[in-house]
Amino acid sequence: MKHFLHLTVFMLCLCSCQSSDELGNAEIITDPLNTDNSTENEPVAPFEISIDDSDLAILPEDIGGNHTAFPLGSTSANYGHYVYTPSGYTADGPKYPVIIFLHGWNSNLGNEPLENVLLSGPPRLIKAGQWNPNYPFIVVSPQLTTPYWAPSQTHRFIEYLISTYQINTDRIYLTGLSLGGGGCWYYIGEIEDNYAAAIVPISASGAAYLIDNLRKVPIWAFHGAHDTTVEAYVNFGSVPLVQAINLADPIIEARVTIYPNLGHNAWTTTYNGAGRDHNQLYDRFDVDLYDWLLTYKKE
Fold first, then answer.
1. Cα–Cα distance for residue pair 99/289, rounded to 1 Å
2. pLDDT at residue 108, as a whole number
3. Helix and strand element counts for the chain (H, E)
4. 2-7+53-294: CATH homologous superfamily?
5. In angstroms, rounded to a whole number, what is the distance separating the alpha carbons of residues 190 and 182?
6. Cα–Cα dist 97/56, whole Å
7. At a CB cut-off of 8 Å and minimum separation 6, what does 234 contact?
8. Which residues pair with 202 in a beta bridge?
9. Which of 31, 85, 213, 231 is at 20 to 30 A from 167, Cα to Cα?
10. pLDDT of 131-146, one tens digit each?
């Protein structure tokens, strides 16, 4: 039954595409869960970044690494994928944090060109020479072969990465957009013994039965208020799902940032950091996203 619900939710994301930012002058959508909207624009204390860099300071500065394609079947991995390794990475050197990026729909299945995974998110920034986080990361971008990100397959893929690369298993982070954002919610929600130290789901929804496991992992969700593909405020979109997590005594309070003038594409402006200059509701996007990830280690 869970897998049926899982597939149903993900199929809502079929229109998830890799379009440009959907900026406009539309009116702000109010939150139906908060009829007087009194809390939406209240001042919020800035998030305090505190990174234990004892395992990061030893990593060489990344001055431009290698972004390599591994088509399905060329390795023992269950997905074709791209891997970015920082310039100082060696097969017998120190272990690196890893970001695993789960793409959206847009025909990015195994019978499509693997290059399609470069259309959005961190792999797009890498391809454009715009990837410059404050600390080096391995970045891995798998390509789906099925209609949705099955949690068991995501888990299997992460195990392949751990066995193949110098990965700091305390610092495995998942992020994804639309269909891939759902892949983040469901991986954490269904796999109790998961590998994620923190997740960033964008323009995605989840389900009530996921909440017990979601409350155990740091989460920062992003969404556009005008998203009509996956709505932010209903059906366990980002806002009600984060609210439900925070009512369930989470280990770390979950965060949600809503762009009042954006539609489904809330990811471009989030991954490149431009969203920090946009008007926002709920938790302020006032720190570097990748530094926020590194605030957390898997315990």
1. 12
2. 56
3. 8, 9
4. Alpha/Beta hydrolase fold, catalytic domain (3.40.50.1820)
5. 12
6. 8
7. 32, 240
8. 177, 222
9. 213
10. 999 999 999 999 998 8
For residues 222-244, b (16+ Cβ closer than 10 Å) or e, as one string? bbbbbbebbbbbeebbbbbbbbb
Residue 294 C-beta-side C-alpha neighbours within 13 Å: 24
Tokens describing residue 205: 């929804």
Model-level pTM? 0.87
SS3 letters across 226-253: CCCCCCCCCCCCHHHHHHHHHCCCCCCC
> What are the residues whose beta carbons fall under 8 Å from the beta carbon of 35, sequence distance 6 or more?
none
Ranges of each domain in the chain: 2-7+53-294
Q: Are 137 and 99 in contact (CB under 8 A)?
A: yes
Distance (Å, whole) CA 189 – CA 208 = 9
Cα separation, 294 vs 285, whole angstroms: 16
C-alpha to C-alpha distance for 67 and 170, rounded to whole angstroms: 23
> Two tokens at 214?
């979601």
- Per-residue pLDDT reduced to its tens digit, 251-285: 999 999 999 999 999 999 999 999 999 999 999 99
Task: Return the exposure string of 77-95: e unless at least 16 CB atoms fall within 10 Å of the residue's CB, then b.
Answer: bbbbbbbbbbeebeeeeeb
Percent of the chain with pLDDT over 70: 83
**32 — pLDDT class (breaks 50, 70, 90):** very low
Is the separation of the CB atoms in 224 and 232 below 8 Å? yes
- The residue behind tokens 């970015």 is 84
